[in-house]
Amino acid sequence: MKRDPRSGKVGLIGTGMVGSSFAYCLMQSGLVSDLVLIDADRGRAEGEAMDLNHGLAFVRPMTIRAGEYADLTDAKVVVITAGANQRPGQSRLDLLQRNAAVIRDVVPKITAVCPETTIVVATNPVDILTQIAEDVAALPAGRVLGSGTTLDTARLRFLLGGHYAVDPRSVHAYVVAEHGDSALALWSMANVAGVRLEDFVSGSGRGYDRPALDAIFEQVRKAAYEIIQRKGSTYYAIGLALLSVVEAILRDQHTVLTVCSTMRGRLGLEGIALSLPSIVGASGIEAVLEIPMSDEERDGFRRSAAILSERLAELG
Ligand code: NAD
């Protein structure tokens, strides 16, 4: 079968733990024909390309190479995972100054060679950095998005699945707002197989228990700290979360994901990036959904936005 060598090219900026985990997921997905790896440490990108290439005998054909920005021409999606990660005890917002400089460095280099691309940011603090990337890129609305709370949402679904002994894929619950300490779970709309949590009773008779749910969410909120304390950084689950975002774009799936983007009037917020369930397809974010929230949730969302606005203002 003849393949269009330009179809499904994806670029990856930053081939550290998160970037290489995403690359490994992408390689196994068979989704793309060409993956270009770029890192400030060229040797690191080359080493990852070599290691990944040695697995190509086990997956569908594609090319994987370490490259330069010029090699991103025609890339449909460019994922940014470049930048410092949290050290034990550090919050995501502590990384702001350093990683804002990384985003301001790499985004113009991407748009200079592929102005038609969609950019997916994962570098932390992902909300503010997505907003900066949006400003710098000046691409059409929706074409710069961040992984936002896709990972937190996956963590919540996993833990709720364990609590109720059901497949996490049958749990529909969202974490929204900051990907960080002020994230919040939208309990008012959380459900298992369409049954609201307040009404849901598990196979073993487990029913609604708000303190237990709050304890589960506390685990979600602390997950990164707990993992970083034990193994230095988190990367597998974010690799898969990034794959789900990239797949939604490349396959034009219109998948609802809690990606982040700059708010344009949702909940009265303007010009600050946060996560809300959004439809993701070929043009990036196609719509940020209007979702019902309790008064408590709306207040929490606005508080999270205020925290991010403050940090953004400090950055200048
Ligand atoms: P890492 O240190 O393993 O890798 C970072 C890589 O970025 C390094 O290889 C480094 O050389 C490269 N880099 C730095 N500046 C660069 C530049 N200007 N241009 C190109 N490459 C550059 O870190 P990691 O564990 O892979 O984490 C990367 C980022 O992802 C961190 O900011 C981390 O906090 C974030 N992260 C986000 C999520 C999420 O849910 N969004 C989850 C986990 C980690």
Describe it.
There is one protein chain. With 316 residues, this protein is α/β, with parallel strands linked by helices. 41% of the residues lie in helices and 18% in strands. It has 8 helices and 16 strands. It has helices at residues 17-29, 42-53, 96-113, 126-137, 150-164, 210-231, 236-250, 295-315; strands at 9-13, 34-38, 63-66, 77-80, 118-121, 144-146, 171-172, 175-176, 184-185, 191-192, 195-196, 255-257, 260-264, 270-275, 278-281, 284-288. It has a 6-stranded parallel β-sheet, with helices on both faces. Strand 1 (9-13), helix 1 and strand 2 form a beta-alpha-beta unit. The chain is globular and about 55 Å long. The chain starts with 8 loop residues before the first strand and ends with a helix. 46% of the residues are buried. Mean pLDDT is 95; it is low at 1-6. Bound molecules: nicotinamide-adenine-dinucleotide.
Query: What is the oligomer described by this structure?
Result: single chain
Give the biggest beta sheet.
Answer: 6 strands, parallel
Strand content: 15-25%
As a percent range, the share of helical residues equals 40-55%
In this entry the ligands are: nicotinamide-adenine-dinucleotide
Strand order of the largest sheet: 3-2-1-4-5-6
**What radius of gyration results from the CA coordinates?**
19 Å
SSE pattern = EHEHEEHEHEHEEEEEHHEEEEEH
| Coarse shape | globular
Structural class estimated from helices and strands: alpha/beta
Q: What's the mean pLDDT score?
A: 95
Report the strand count.
16
Stretches with pLDDT under 50, minimum 5 residues:
1-6
